[in-house]
């Protein structure tokens, strides 16, 4: 199968890299036509005023070159649009249709669901919300096949956009296993180290983490928080108001340094937000920490349940927005002597498994399949 990966997809994030690595592991005939407009933005929702417009302008300026290359390249069987593909699919669709090439679009993160429903950055009545909804409504119907990270997330997006059940496929986020190999266990300690990292957005539930860490019980542990973002003022205020010698906070560490941070932790944390989206996704960090051999405490959800079922105790699911439940999940892992996610089960979210899942979705858009 000939697959062309096309557009302005963001290679600074693991998602696009993993999809491409997965396809290469399946030995498909793979070609890329790419314009980099995103790699200098860590959190797209936190761009400075006008930053989004700058990216749109960069994309628009790149499309003549991208389209020219698409028209010149030998006809692929499928074209894959990596995240973010909202504008890419609208621009490419007439040209792909003219050449008879089906489009597989990785939605990954819904702009409308994220900005309006999950993060609450604008109200549903705001014109920006209307624009995002309309653009995404169109994009989802132009693509021959849409993929996202979990079946639960797929059903959520289908409901938002009134799409037929099953029309969105699921390809897990997974982890770059070469970047997160299994680490040696941390030596036992009277003060286990708890690691949270990620963008400080409502989905992650940093308030729940802080409530747990600053409680009497939470002061028995050492906590490392890594991240910045929308909820950063909450962290700043809480750490300003309360004694916190047992809590360290770094606003950023390079991706390459995450493995070292994980290696120093006894337990890693997932997400604890209460939104529908928080219960629909499994973030990169959960896969990364499990691959590296560290147990994870995260919110109970339909999305994480299948992974927890094969975790041999390395995933503790707790109710969202409940600091006491988070602390109890930590205590259960400590009492169980820090279970390690089964090595063979890591293959279920390795690059090869991601490639197989993506290839299966791509084959669904081919004629006579």
Write a structural description.
The chain has 369 residues and is an alpha/beta fold. The protein folds into 2 domains: 187 residues, Glycogen Phosphorylase B (Rossmann fold), CATH 3.40.50.2000; 157 residues, 3-Layer(aba) Sandwich (Rossmann fold). The chain is built from 14 helices and 12 strands. The strands form 2 sheets. The chain has a 6-stranded parallel sheet, with helices on both faces. A 6-stranded parallel sheet has the order 9-8-7-10-11-12, with helices on both faces. Strand 1, helix 1 and strand 2 form a beta-alpha-beta unit. The longest helix has 22 residues. It is globular and about 65 Å long. The mean pLDDT is 95.
Q: What is this structure, in a nutshell?
A:
The chain has 369 residues and is an alpha/beta fold. It has helices spanning 14-25, 51-72, 86-99, 111-118, 127-142, 151-160, 206-213, 232-241, 258-263, 284-291, 305-309, 323-335, 343-346, 351-363; strands spanning 2-7, 29-34, 78-81, 103-106, 145-148, 168-170, 193-197, 222-226, 247-250, 267-269, 296-299, 315-318.
């Amino acid at each position: 199968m000939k697959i062309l990966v096309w557009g302005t997809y963001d290679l600074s994030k693991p998602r696009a890299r993993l999809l491409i690595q997965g396809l290469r592991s399946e030995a498909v005939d793979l070609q890329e036509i790419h314009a980099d407009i995103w790699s200098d933005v860590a959190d797209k929702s936190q761009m400075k005023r006008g930053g989004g417009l700058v990216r749109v302008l960069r994309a628009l300026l790149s499309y003549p070159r991208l389209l020219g290359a698409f028209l010149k390249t030998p006809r692929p069987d499928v074209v894959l649009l990596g995240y973010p593909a909202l504008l890419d699919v609208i621009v490419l669709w007439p040209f792909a249709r003219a050449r008879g090439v089906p489009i597989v679009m990785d939605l990954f993160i819904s702009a409308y669901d994220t900005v309006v429903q999950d993060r609450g950055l604008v109200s549903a009545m705001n014109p920006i919300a209307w624009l995002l909804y309309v653009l995404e409504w169109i994009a989802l119907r132009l693509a021959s096949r849409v993929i996202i990270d979990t079946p639960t997330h797929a059903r959520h997006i289908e409901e938002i956009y009134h799409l037929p059940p099953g029309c969105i496929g699921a390809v897990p986020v997974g982890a770059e296993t070469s970047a997160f190999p299994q680490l040696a266990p941390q030596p036992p300690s009277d003060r286990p180290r708890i690691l949270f990292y990620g963008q400080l957005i409502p989905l992650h539930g940093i308030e729940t983490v802080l409530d747990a860490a600053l409680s009497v019980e939470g002061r028995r542990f050492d906590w490392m928080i890594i991240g910045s973002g929308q909820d950063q003022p909450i962290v700043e205020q809480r750490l300003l108001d309360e004694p916190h010698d047992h809590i360290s906070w770094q606003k950023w560490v390079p991706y390459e340094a995450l493995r070292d941070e994980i290696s120093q932790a006894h337990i890693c944390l997932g997400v604890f937000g209460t939104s529908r989206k928080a219960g629909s996704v499994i973030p990169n960090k959960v896969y990364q920490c499990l691959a590296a051999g560290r147990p994870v405490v995260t919110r109970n959800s339909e999305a994480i349940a299948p992974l927890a079922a094969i975790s041999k105790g390395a995933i503790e699911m707790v109710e969202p927005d409940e600091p006491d439940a988070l602390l109890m999940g930590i205590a259960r892992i400590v009492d169980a002597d820090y279970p390690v996610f089964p090595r063979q089960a890591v293959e279920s979210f390795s690059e090869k498994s991601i490639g197989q899942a993506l290839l299966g979705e791509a084959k669904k858009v081919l004629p006579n399949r």
